[in-house]
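Course assignment 3, question 2. Fill in each field.
Student: A.L.
Task: Predict the tertiary structure for the chain below.
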Amino acid sequence: MKVTVDLSGLDEFVEEVDENATELMKEAAHNAVNTQKERNVSNKKTYQNHTWNLRNAPGAAVVRNGKIVDLYVPADGGHSEAKGKTENLLIYGKHPKDGVVAADGMEYASFVSSKGFDVMDSTRLTLEKELKQSFGNDNVKVTWQE
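Answer field:
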């Protein structure tokens, strides 16, 4: 007995699933960065903005197969230096083969965070929540590096 299996269309299906996953990751990354810029959803203190650089610097990159497919740093026009520093950190920093990397490129971001202020915590919380919802999986693991 000979069994013949027609797998035509399988490659297109896999590609469609991959594209959908990428879009879900982009949406989660953008929403997480926007949340960080707009409000504090963590239990940490909100810092005072003197220059608005720290608040304009959050950004994220979606990485697929080792390449950045989406770079999102929505700084306003008056903070191009903050935007550039975050873009450099996201482009030239370490990133996984597949995943979302979020960062605030201002040199003093980790110092402000160490004092108990929400610099990127709202991004992390929002990103983790949205990825778990999007992929319907509580096993989604968000790693954080400062």
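Instructor remarks: The chain has five helices and three strands. The chain has one domain: 10-135.
Grade: pending
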